[in-house]
Amino acid sequence: MARRTKEEAEQTKEAILASAMDLFYEKGFARTTFDEIAKRINLTKGAVYWHFRNKADLLAELMKQKFQEHESKTWSEKPQITTLQELREGFRVAASSIESDPEFCKFLFFIIFQMEWSEIITNRIRQQIHEIMDYPWLSLKEKLTFIQKSGEIRPDVDIDDLTTLLLCAWRGVVDAFIAKRFPMNLSRSVSQAFDLMMDGLKVEKK
């Protein structure tokens, strides 16, 4: 019985997160209330508060869930990236995963363009934000460091700078795709951006 109760609680939590995502996308974070989140899935406001103390905690959990789901569909399938070609393919697969996932695109649109980030909200979930933002940088740095040591990237290239620039390029292209600023194929654009950045940094083969 206890196991079933735990499973039901997890299902309720997932339903709350889905309801919140829809309402945040439709109305914005600030204008969405726990009452509305609960009403959409036939719960009481108290049931929502049982899982989340406030909207900031709910937002932090939503961000963690969405980025972990995306990570599990892309990079985690190929954790041992040891060459530039494998890294390029990793970026392409991640882009293709975004293109084929309307729910994740909706989440990204909300986070990038709709979320009313304030100092109060940022301070409340600062730790969660750092965990979400730091992991891709550290993971990519580790991969680039290995590739440089293997002899594919010039030894004079600063890996910290390269990691930052690659992630900035990735996020810039993704932002443009999510905003529909230009007609574009995301996976092709990401691959082209990778090639443009990396071609000048490769060790020339004799």
Task: Produce a short descriptive summary.
This protein is mainly α and 206 residues long. The chain is built from 10 helices and no strands.
Structure notes:
The chain is mostly helical and 206 residues long. The protein has ten helices and no strands. Helix 5 packs antiparallel against helix 10, helix 8 packs across helix 9 and helix 9 packs antiparallel against helix 10. The longest helix is centred in the N-terminal third of the chain and has 26 residues. The termini are far apart. The model has no long low-confidence stretch (mean pLDDT 89).
Write the layout of secondary structure elements.
Elements: H1 2-27, H2 34-40, H3 45-51, H4 55-73, H5 84-99, H6 102-114, H7 119-124, H8 126-149, H9 159-179, H10 186-198
Helix pairs in contact: 1-2, 2-3, 5-10, 8-9, 9-10
Features:
206 residues, mainly alpha, 10 helices, elongated
SSE string: HHHHHHHHHH
End-to-end span in angstroms?
A: 68 Å
Silhouette: elongated
Strand-residue proportion = under 5%
Give the overall average pLDDT.
Answer: 89
Please count the helical segments. Answer: 10
- Low-pLDDT residue spans: none
Structural class: mainly alpha
Taking Cα atoms only, what radius of gyration do you get, to the nearest Å? 20 Å
The main sheet comes to:
none
Question: What is the percent of helical residues?
Answer: over 70%
What's the number of extended β-strand segments?
A: 0
